[in-house]
């Protein structure tokens, strides 16, 4: 029944939140529950019963008159025309988004790998005299990373139109991806836990080894071990990027999570802030590294910036969730 209730929530999500619509939703849920119990009593499996119920009651346009919500359904703004998506197109969308996520994660890894080798090669070097080879390798890494970002971004841009339109999938396809999304919940949580754990380990390795070797009077060894920190952190960030992008793609297909219609405006604002924000972070990172000769420390800009951006996103979400935020959006 959870799958049926979730499907009904999706059907009513774009309708106005009136008492009449709420009553109709409760009535339809009761009808579906009664029919589901009948089918189970006849010996059908859970999946078969769910599929039969969704087939029978899954078209809100056919049920609108019986439920008394024809006016509300016809009054929904149709300016945002839905895009019809087949199973094959949806699978292609998932593949392309997954490839783009991996390219972006690889770009992050290459950048922090360049920072790692700079710290390693310059351990013990005189201030203001960075190793020339490490500097060349760093810039080569930047070029490779930018290329990866561009290719990954172009892959993701193929589906920009999905961001401004609703997606319309047939009943069986929508039900399939809702089940996929539910079945991958554990994997999504595991990716978050793994990514965050690796980031914490990265910080821990640098802090512990730095403390130990500094106490032994071996500053060069401390710097060398510190070079491992950005490498481990980059792997953790990559896991978060790939896992989050996969989840976001499934959310997009099912109009769940961040792609709930009520959160679309919130996501648009966060997206507009993201570009200038990360460009500023890159400028700070390069300026600190070159001007301050702080390549052994400037990489800290990236994890700190990630935490700050998360706080910004949460703040924007809270603002949109408040009454004042909704009023401001209406204006």
Task: Describe this protein's structure.
The chain crosses the membrane at residues 101-120, 132-156, 188-213, 225-245, 269-288, 300-321. Keywords: Membrane, Transmembrane, Transmembrane helix. There is one protein chain. The protein has 15 helices and two strands. It has 331 residues and is an all-alpha fold. The protein folds into three domains: 2-74; 87-259, no CATH class; 261-277 and 297-331. The model is unreliable at 322-331 (pLDDT under 50).
Short description:
With 331 residues, this protein is mainly α. The protein has helices at 2-12, 19-41, 46-57, 60-67, 70-74, 87-121, 132-157, 161-164, 171-183, 185-215, 219-226, 228-254, 264-291, 301-321, 323-330, and strands at residues 83-85, 167-169. InterPro entries: Perm_prefix_1 (IPR047928).
Detail the topology: elements first, then pairings.
Elements lengths: L1 H11 L6 H23 L4 H12 L2 H8 L2 H5 L8 E3 L1 H35 L10 H26 L3 H4 L2 E3 L1 H13 L1 H31 L3 H8 L1 H27 L9 H28 L9 H21 L1 H8 L1
Parallel strand pairs: 1-2
Helix pairs in contact: 1-2, 2-3, 6-7, 6-11, 6-12, 9-12, 10-11, 10-12, 13-14, 14-15
**Mass-distribution shape:** elongated
Number of strands: 2
H/E series? HHHHHEHHHEHHHHHHH
Helix content: over 70%
Low-confidence stretches: 322-331
Largest beta-sheet details:
2 strands, parallel
Q: How many H/I helical runs? A: 15
Radius of gyration: 25 Å
Domain module count: 3
The share of residues in extended strands comes to under 5%
Query: How is the largest sheet built, in terms of strand order?
Result: 1-2
Q: Class by helix and strand content?
A: mainly alpha
N-to-C span? 39 Å
Protein name: DUF1700 domain-containing protein
Organism: Gulosibacter molinativorax
Keywords: Membrane, Transmembrane, Transmembrane helix
InterPro entries: Perm_prefix_1
């Amino acid at each position: 029944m959870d799958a049926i209730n979730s499907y009904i929530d999706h059907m009513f999500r774009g309708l106005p939140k009136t008492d009449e619509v709420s009553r109709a939703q409760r009535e339809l849920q009761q009808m579906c529950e009664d029919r589901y119990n009948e089918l189970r009593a006849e010996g059908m499996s859970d999946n078969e019963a769910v599929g039969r119920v969704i087939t029978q009651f899954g078209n809100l346009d056919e049920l609108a008159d019986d439920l008394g919500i024809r006016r509300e359904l016809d009054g929904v703004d149709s300016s945002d025309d839905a895009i019809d998506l087949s199973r094959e197109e949806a699978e292609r969308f998932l593949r392309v988004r997954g490839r783009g996520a991996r390219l972006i994660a690889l770009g992050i890894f290459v950048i922090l790998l360049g920072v790692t080798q700079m710290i390693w090669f310059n351990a013990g070097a005189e201030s203001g005299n960075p190793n020339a080879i490490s500097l060349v390798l760093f810039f080569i890494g930047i070029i490779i990373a930018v290329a990866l970002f561009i290719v990954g971004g172009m892959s993701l841009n193929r589906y920009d139109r999905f961001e401004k339109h609703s997606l319309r999938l047939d009943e069986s396809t929508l039900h399939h991806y809702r089940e996929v999304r539910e079945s991958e919940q554990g994997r999504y949580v595991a990716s978050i836990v793994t990514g965050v754990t690796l980031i914490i380990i990265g910080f821990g390795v640098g802090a512990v080894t730095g403390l130990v070797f500094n106490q032994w009077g071996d500053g060069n060894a401390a710097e060398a071990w510190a070079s491992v920190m950005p490498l481990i952190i980059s792997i953790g960030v990559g896991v978060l990027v790939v896992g989050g992008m996969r989840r976001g793609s499934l959310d997009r297909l099912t109009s769940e999570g961040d792609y709930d219609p009520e959160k679309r405006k919130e996501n648009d604002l966060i997206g507009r802030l993201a570009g200038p924000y990360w460009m500023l972070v890159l400028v700070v990172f390069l300026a600190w590294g070159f001007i301050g000769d702080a390549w052994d420390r400037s990489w800290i800009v990236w994890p700190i910036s990630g935490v700050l951006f998360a706080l910004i996103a949460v703040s924007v979400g809270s603002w949109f969730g408040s009454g004042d935020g909704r009023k401001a959006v209406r204006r």
